[in-house]
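Bug report

Summary: C-alpha cells for PQQ-dependent sugar dehydrogenase differ between web form and batch submission.
Environment: batch mode, default settings.
Steps: 1) Submit the sequence below via batch. 2) Compare with the web form result.

Sequence submitted:
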Amino acid sequence: MPSHSRTARRILVAVTSAIAVVTMTTSCADFTQEDQVAAQGSFTAPPTMERKPAPPPSPRDETGGTPPTGPCVDPDPSVIATCLASTSGVRPADASGQTTYVAERTTGKIILSKRYGPQRAVATVPVDASGDGGLIDFAMSPTYLEDQLIFALVTTGSDNRIVRIAPTGSVKPILTGIPKGASGNMGSIAFEGPNTLVVATGDTGNTGAADDPSSLAGKIFTINPNAADPRPDLRASGLGSDVALCPSPGSDGQLFVADSGARGDRLSLVGPKSLQTLWTWADRPGVSGCAVGQDWISVSLAKKQRIDTFIRPSTGSSTLGEPSAQPTDKTYGAVGRMTSIGGAATQIATVNKSVRVGDVKSFDDRVAIFMPKPGEDLR
C-alpha cells in the first residue's frame, strides 16, 4: 500500500475514534453489574493541565438564513440548547462557548448542543433521579480528546458515587458509598490537576452528617481518580444541601464554592483544610450555581430568578462589595448551574422544570451564554 494511503487510513481511524459516541441503555437502572466490574478501559498517562483564557463570546445566529420555528426554538440569540430535561452540570464544548455539554439530571444523559444544531447524547449513565438525585455533575477527562473518558457524580438506588464512563459505554465505579438522602444530594466535581478530582457533596438533608468527619456527606474532598483504591482527602466540611464548585479559570488555583442549606446561603473560598465565607444571603434566595471569571464571581439564585455578580477579591483578600443583581425571570427563569467561558462570560443552565417558580416554556430547559455585570469594587 502506498505510504500516502497508509497515512490517510491512520488519520481516518484517529478522527473516527475522537468522535466516538458514548451511549448506554437506561431502560432499567440496575447497578449490580456495574458494581461487579473490576476494571474497564484504561487510563492515559497524566496530562498537563492548562487553562487558556478565551475572548468574550458574542451570541450570534450562525444559520445564515431564516431561523427555524417550532416549540423548541427560543428566539433569544444567547440560547444554545433547548428542550432539555431538568439540568445539572454544564461545560463549554469549545473555547468560544458557542457549543455546550450539559447534563440532564433526570435522564442520566450528557448532551452536546449548539444553537439550532442537532443535539447528541455523548454519554448516558443509569441513575436514580428521585428527589434531587440523578446525574448530579460531570467532568471531562483532562485528556478527553484522546481518551473520551467522562467522570460523573451520580445517584444510584443505594448511594451517591463517582463513576467513570468509557468510550465503549461501560460505567466503572471509582468511589462508592457517598451518602444519599431523599434530598440534599446536589453536589459538584471539578479537576484540579491530572490526578486530582475535587468532589463536593450535599448534606443529604442532615446537618449532623455534614459535621461528622466519618461521613462523606456535606464535604469537599479530593481523590485520585486514576488510583485503584482512591482515598478521599478532606478539605472542608459543613456544606449544605445544594453545593456548586466554581474553580478559577486562571493559573492562581483558587477554588470557590456556593451552597445553600440549614446554615444559610453562602459563597466561600475553599482553603487547604477549611472554608472562608465571603458572602451570605439573609433572605435565603436559593443558591444554585456559580462561576468565576478573571475579575468577577457570579452566583445564580434559582428561587429569586436572578444572578448576583461580585467584583472578584484580590488574592489574600476576603472583602466583597455589594453584588450587582441581574434578574433572569423574564429571560431564562430559574438558573441552576453555571460555568465560566475562559473567564470572560458564562454558560448558564435553567432548572425551570424542577424549581417551578415561574412559567415553564415550551423550549425549557435551556443553556444560554450570559455576560456578568460585576458590582461594587471595594479593593
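Above is the batch result. After comparison, the two runs are identical; trailing whitespace caused the diff. The two ends are 67 Å apart (CA to CA). The chain has five helices and 24 strands.
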